[in-house]
Write the structure tokens for this entry.
Amino acid sequence: MFNKKISTVMVIFAVVLVMSVCFRLSYWQWQRAFEKQAQLAMLSEHRENQRLLMNTNTELLQGAKTELVGQLVPDYWWLLDNQILNGQIGYDLIALFNADGVDEHFIINLGFVAAGADRSQLPIIELPLEPIEVKAQFKIGEWSGFTLAKYPNQSAHHRNVLQYLEWSFFSRELSVAVSPLLVIANRTVVTGVTPHYKAVVMSPDKHRAYALQWFLIGLSAGIIAFFATRPKSKELIR
């Protein structure tokens, strides 16, 4: 009997712990939904003002879409190696972008450009010299995924062919201040260069769905534990 009581107490403790974690996660996701909703509303208001947009909390700009007006800096471009689009091997064209009203320069991913048969010969790149309007989105944090390369520019053939993107690399190499925000074009800016990146951003509705999911999991754990541990009726024992 004593061992049975201990087992019951342990089960109840474990269930309470599970329910607490689930409800906590549910509350956190619900809060994130409100924060994301406020973020989207704020970005919508600031979209027409680049300076206001740049003064926004950087952490809230992941995946945020905007329109930037400015100029690509001539002769400052790189090719991100080992990219594949629709089964074709090539590069992503990376450039230095000077946005109007913003003190820092941006590194911008303009999209995919196909490689030629001879990897030692780079595609011919001609950046527009006139002011442009870029429909883009931001990426924050780590700019690159997994890589075995030790340095961004360790290509065997060309110095401006990069193995991965890194903010500190551009900060060292360039004589201008570089924003920690990576800008990724959503529309074609350079002829023959195809934008293809899509940031993974969770919508407010997705956060609410996860909040409901965690709440139901916690509630289910409590209901199951209740019926599993309640005393059996004497009539059923007879």
Remarks:
- The first strand starts at residue 65 and ends at 85.
